[in-house]
Each structure stands twice: as structure tokens, then as C-alpha cells.
């Protein structure tokens, strides 16, 4: 009887080990399949980027030499040269980068101040018509730029701001999305801190500078990155109000590689890489704060 029980126990243990091994094997197999699929998708995603990098260091007459039919040689520079980058900078890419940086950082600084103050007002105070005004602010970042471009251009022209930094910067300072981010963040700010500061005799502006801003680093960085990227990537508005070579921005400098009858593909790829690398280098160190700011505002991607 005891022998039979031991035999049944050993049989159950064997079945359990077999079942556990099958589950483990199934889990490993599932993960392996998932990783293989993800690696395949990653390679497909990276192939165009690798080709763009290679094309930017390749003479124009050899850019498509190994692409039809496709060969992996196309992912490496064919007859390495800096010609594309040199031509871009000869046509004013350096000045365009300077202009774009001036516009982007000006938008971050002045636009950030305006957005933070507006967000503090919407998030911390109750006043007549607040919801209506906030709804208008939210609607503004849903309206395509093309719809208001002509009226905005006519206003800038009447003010004499054409071909100037003022005409490029001022219209972008009131940023609806940045105001929305600050508003959502300040709605969750502890009201007890604000009330305690008011009891101590602090003005609202003092409270904003000394209490609110020092505790709002995530949303400040999040909104700053949003403003920077938005201004850095602008093309249509600068083309409309400041089309002169002296005032051209990076996106306009990149567009010079594409003519009506001919496209300089190596220069186009070089310009695209320059336009992408600079914001990436600026954003990457603050990526953690960007994610914290977005998650803290309740915005879903």
C-alpha cells in the first residue's frame, strides 16, 4: 500500500515536472517569437535612416547605385565625401541653424513665461468665464496653422514685422498646448501651500515665483521641449513672413536641395539629418522629465 502511494507520488511529480517544462518551453518560445518580430520591425524601421545617413556622404551620381535592385551596399557610403554638407553650409545652413536656435529658445523662454502664467491662472483661480476662455485656448491648438496664416500675415505686415525675428517669434508665443499642460499640472498643485503663503502675506506673483515654479520642474521642461520642437520644425510661417536668405531657418535651408526640375538627394538627406540631430541632442538629456511632465498632466498618447 505504501509502495503504491510512493509510486503515485512519483508519477504526480513527474507529470508536474513535465507540465512545468512544457510551460517554460512555451514561455521561452513565445518570447523568442516576440523578440524576433520586434527585431525584424526594428530593422525595417532603421533601414531608411541608415540609407539616409549613407546617402548624405555619397556623391549625387552614386546615391541610387545599389538601391535598384536593393543591395546592402546601399547602407554604406559609396565613395565617401563631405560634399553634400559642404554645399549646404555654402548656401547658408550655418546661418539657418543660428536663426532656428534663436527662434526656438526665444519661444521657449518668452512662450514658457506666458504659458506658465496663463496656466497658473486657469489652474489655481476661479473667475467668471474661465471655462469658456479655457475652451477657446484648447481649440486654438486644434486649428491648422494654414487656416489663420493669411490673417496673421496681414497683421504682421501692417506692424512692419516682415523679415524680422519679431515677426517670426511673437505669433508663436501664445501656445495653446503649453497652456493646457501647465493648467492641468497646476490644477493638482496643493492648494494648502498657496493658502498658507497668502496667510503669511505673500503676493500671488511672489507665490508663483517662490513656491509654484520651483515645484514645477517636470511640466516646465515638458512644455519647453514642446515649444522648442514646435518652433524648430516650423517651415510654412517662416517661408511666408521671412523668405530672405538672411532670415531663412533650417527647414528652409533643407528645402533648397529640392528644385523644380532636380532634387539633390545627398544634400536633402544631409539637411534632414542636421534638422533631426540638433533637437534630439537637446531633448535626450531631459527625456525623463518630459515623460514625467506628460504623465503628470493626464495627457494620453
Question: Strand fraction band?
Answer: under 5%
Low-confidence parts, pLDDT < 50 over ≥5 residues? 296-301
The helix count comes to: 14
CATH topology of the largest domain: MetI-like fold
The CATH architecture of the largest domain would be Orthogonal Bundle
Give the proportion of residues in helices: over 70%
Average pLDDT confidence is: 83
* Spatial separation of the terminal alpha carbons: 65 Å
Q: Give the full name of the CATH homologous superfamily of the largest domain.
A: MetI-like
Question: How many structural units, i.e. domains?
Answer: 2
What overall form do the CA principal axes indicate? Answer: flat
Query: Structural class per helix/strand content?
Result: mainly alpha
Query: What is Rg?
Result: 28 Å
CATH class identity of the largest domain: Mainly Alpha
Tell me about the biggest sheet? none
Overall strand count: 0
Features of the shown structure:
single chain, 301 residues, mainly alpha, MetI-like fold, 2 domains, 71% helix, 0% strand, disordered C terminus
Please tell me about this protein's structure.
The structure is a single chain. With 301 residues, this protein is mainly alpha-helical. It folds into 2 domains: 74 residues; 213 residues, MetI-like (MetI-like fold, Orthogonal Bundle), CATH 1.10.3720. 71% of the residues lie in helices and 0% in strands. It contains 14 helices and no strands. α1 crosses α13 and α10 crosses α14. The protein starts with a helix and ends with a helix.
Amino acid at each position: 500500500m505504501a509502495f503504491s502511494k510512493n509510486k503515485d507520488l512519483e508519477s504526480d511529480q513527474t507529470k508536474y515536472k513535465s507540465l512545468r517544462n512544457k510551460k517554460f518551453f512555451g514561455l521561452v518560445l513565445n518570447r523568442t517569437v516576440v523578440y524576433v518580430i520586434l527585431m525584424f520591425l526594428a530593422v525595417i524601421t532603421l533601414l531608411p535612416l541608415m540609407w539616409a545617413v549613407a546617402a548624405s556622404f555619397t556623391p549625387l551620381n552614386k546615391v541610387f547605385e545599389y538601391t535598384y535592385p536593393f543591395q546592402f551596399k546601399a547602407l554604406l557610403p559609396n565613395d565617401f565625401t563631405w560634399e553634400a554638407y559642404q554645399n549646404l553650409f555654402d548656401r547658408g545652413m550655418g546661418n539657418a541653424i543660428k536663426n532656428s536656435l534663436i527662434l526656438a529658445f526665444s519661444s521657449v523662454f518668452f512662450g514658457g513665461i506666458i504659458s506658465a502664467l496663463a496656466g497658473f491662472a486657469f489652474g489655481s483661480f476661479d473667475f467668471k468665464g474661465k471655462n469658456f476662455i479655457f475652451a477657446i485656448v484648447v481649440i486654438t491648438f486644434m486649428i491648422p496653422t494654414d487656416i489663420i496664416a493669411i490673417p496673421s500675415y496681414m497683421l504682421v505686415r501692417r506692424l512692419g514685422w516682415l523679415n524680422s525675428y519679431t515677426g517670426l517669434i511673437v505669433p508663436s508665443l501664445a501656445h495653446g498646448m503649453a497652456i493646457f499642460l501647465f493648467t492641468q499640472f497646476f490644477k493638482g498643485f496643493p492648494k494648502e501651500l498657496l493658502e498658507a503663503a497668502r496667510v503669511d502675506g505673500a503676493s500671488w506673483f511672489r507665490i508663483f515665483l517662490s513656491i509654484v515654479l520651483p515645484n514645477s520642474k517636470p511640466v516646465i521642461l515638458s512644455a519647453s521641449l514642446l515649444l522648442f520642437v514646435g518652433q524648430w520644425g516650423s517651415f510654412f510661417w517662416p517661408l511666408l513672413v521671412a523668405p530672405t536668405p538672411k532670415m531663412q531657418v533650417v527647414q528652409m535651408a533643407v528645402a533648397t536641395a529640392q528644385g523644380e526640375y532636380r532634387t539633390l538627394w545627398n544634400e536633402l538627406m544631409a539637411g534632414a539629418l542636421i534638422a533631426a540631430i540638433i533637437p534630439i541632442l537637446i531633448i535626450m538629456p531631459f527625456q525623463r522629465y518630459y515623460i514625467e511632465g506628460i504623465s503628470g498632466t493626464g495627457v494620453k498618447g
